[in-house]
Amino acid sequence: MTALWAYLALSVLLGWGCLAGPRGTKAQQPGTPLSDQEYHQFFEFLRVTIQASTACHLRELYGCKNSLVQRLDEYENHGIIPPGPICSELPENPFFHNFCTFSLYRCIMKKYFLKVSYLAIS
């Protein structure tokens, strides 16, 4: 059953992508329904957020040493998981011992789209 769940989660995650919508479009009157384009943007954001949440559940369930979790980390980092230390764009806690700690922090705090700002020099 766990393998099936992991397979389904991976299937969802393989659809990762981000669709940027146009900025600066005129706001609609409060209380009116969304336009077709606005609905698309709204549900695209939800889809990406749900995928990030699913990746966090995998990380929490299996840990950072799991091959599936490591593949996701490699994907996020262009093929190589940074060894650490890691610096983030988060001013209150910019330093993390390694990428696993950084990723777990993102999951726990639900800051799914927090990025590594640069790699610290050890």
Report what the structure shows.
- By secondary structure, the protein is mainly alpha-helical.
- It has one domain (37-122).
- The protein is 49% helix and 7% strand.
- It has a three-stranded antiparallel sheet.
- Helix 1 (2-13) runs antiparallel to helix 2 and helix 2 (36-62) packs across helix 4.
- The longest helix has 27 residues, at 36-62.
- The protein starts with a helix and ends with a strand.
- This is Acrosin-binding protein.
- Keywords: Cytoplasmic vesicle, Phosphoprotein, Signal.
In short:
With about 120 residues, this protein is mostly helical. The protein has one domain (about 35-120).
- Walk across the major sheet and give the strand order: 2-1-3
Q: Number of domains in the coordinates?
A: 1
Q: What amount of the residues lies in strands?
A: 5-15%
Rounded to the nearest angstrom, the radius of gyration is: 17 Å
User: How many strands in all?
Assistant: 3
Class derived from helix and strand content: mainly alpha
Number of helices: 4
Globally, the shape reads elongated
N- to C-terminal separation?
Answer: 42 Å
Largest sheet data: 3 strands, antiparallel
Give the helices and strands as they follow along the chain.
Answer: HHHEEHE
Low-pLDDT ranges: 7-24
**Estimated helix fraction:** 40-55%
Global mean pLDDT: 74
Pfam family, one: PBP_sp32
Function: Acrosomal protein that maintains proacrosin (pro-ACR) as an enzymatically inactive zymogen in the acrosome. Involved also in the acrosome formation.
Signal peptide: 1-20
Keywords: Cytoplasmic vesicle, Phosphoprotein, Signal
